[in-house]
Amino acid sequence: MRRALRALSAVLIVTGVLLVLDAVLTVVWQEPVTAIYGKVRQNQLGGDLSKLNRLPLSLAERGALKVLRSDPQRIDFLARSMRRHIHDGQAIGRLKIPHVHANYVMVEGTDAASLRKGPGHYPATPLPGMAGTVAVAGHRTTYLAPFNKLDKLRKGDRVRVEMPYAIVTYRVERTRIVKPTAVWVTRRVGYDRLVMTACHPKYSAAKRIAVFARQVSERERGLSARIRRGPAVRRAASAPPLSRR
Question: Kindly report the CA angle at 209 between 205 and 210, in degrees rounded to 5?
Answer without folding.
Answer: 135
